[in-house]
C-alpha cells in the first residue's frame, strides 16, 4: 500500500488478524483488498457491486472470484506455526509455517510484487481513511463470537519487514471481523473495515493484517507498495 500526504508517502505491507471462538467448518480468510473505494461512501457496500479495489496485497492474483483463493494453488492463506506464533514470520515465504501459502515477501524493488498479473499497489495520504476487505469464510454468522481484525503498522521506513513481535507493538486499529454484507453464501460474504492512516515520514512501511481462527492458529496476509 502506498500512503501519501503533502509531504509524506507511506508504502505498506498488510497483515490481518481475525479471531474465532466457536468450532466451525474449516475455512480461512485473507486480505482481498487493501484500498477499497465505495461507489457511495454514504452507503458502504463491500460487495463487488458496491465499489472497486485500488490497492492489493503483495502478488495478489487478478481475475479470481472473490473468496475463492483458499482453494487456489498456492492458496492465499498463510498459517503461522502453532508453537510461538508471535515469533513466526509475519509474511509467507512459501516455505515456512504450518500452511506456507503464497509468496508475500517484500520484493526488491517493491514494485516487482505489483502490476501485470498482480493487483496494483496502494497509494494513500496521512490522515486518509483506508478501507480493507476480506471474505467471511463462514465466520460472519450470528452465532460466531465477536472477532477482531488487528491492523499493525511498522515505524521502520524503507527497510526490510520487521518481526512479528515488533509489529505487535504498533497496533493502529482493531476492526470487527463480522462487519459483513448480508447473503446466503456464508463462505463468500464480503466483509471489511476502515481506519485512519497515521502520521509517518515519507517512505515505505509494513502494515500487518492478522487473524486467529483458533488458539495459536494464526493466518496472515501481507501487502506492500511504494510512494514517489
UniProtKB/TrEMBL annotation:
UniProt keyword annotations, A-Z: Signal
Organism domain of life: Eukaryota
Record's signal peptide: 1-27
Bias type Basic and acidic residues, positions: 96-106
Region annotation (Disordered) ranges: 80-114
Annotated protein name in UniProt: Secreted protein
Amino acid at each position: 500500500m502506498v500512503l501519501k500526504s503533502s509531504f509524506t508517502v507511506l508504502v505498506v505491507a498488510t497483515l490481518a488478524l481475525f479471531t474465532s471462538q466457536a468450532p466451525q467448518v474449516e475455512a480461512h480468510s485473507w486480505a482481498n483488498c487493501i484500498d477499497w473505494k465505495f461507489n457511495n461512501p454514504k452507503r458502504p457496500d463491500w460487495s463487488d457491486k458496491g465499489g472497486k479495489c485500488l490497492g492489493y496485497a503483495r502478488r495478489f492474483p487478478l481475475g479470481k472470484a472473490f473468496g475463492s483463493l483458499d482453494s487456489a494453488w498456492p492458496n492465499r492463506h498463510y498459517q503461522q506455526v502453532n508453537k510461538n506464533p508471535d515469533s513466526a514470520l509475519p509474511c509467507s515465504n512459501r516455505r515456512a509455517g504450518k500452511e506456507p501459502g503464497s509468496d508475500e515477501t517484500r520484493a526488491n524493488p517493491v514494485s516487482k510484487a505489483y502490476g501485470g498479473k498482480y493487483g496494483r499497489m496502494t497509494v494513500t495520504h496521512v490522515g486518509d481513511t483506508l478501507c480493507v476487505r476480506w471474505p467471511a469464510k463462514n465466520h460472519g454468522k450470528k452465532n460466531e463470537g465477536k472477532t477482531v481484525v488487528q491492523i499493525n503498522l511498522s515505524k521502520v521506513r524503507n527497510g526490510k519487514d520487521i518481526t512479528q513481535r515488533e509489529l505487535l507493538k504498533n497496533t493502529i486499529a482493531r476492526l470487527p471481523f463480522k462487519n459483513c454484507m448480508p447473503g446466503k453464501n456464508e463462505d463468500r460474504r464480503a466483509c471489511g473495515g476502515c481506519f485512519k492512516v497515521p502520521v509517518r515520514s515519507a517512505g515505505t512501511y509494513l502494515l500487518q493484517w492478522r487473524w486467529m481462527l483458533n488458539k495459536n492458529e494464526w493466518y496472515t496476509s501481507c501487502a506492500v507498495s511504494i510512494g514517489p
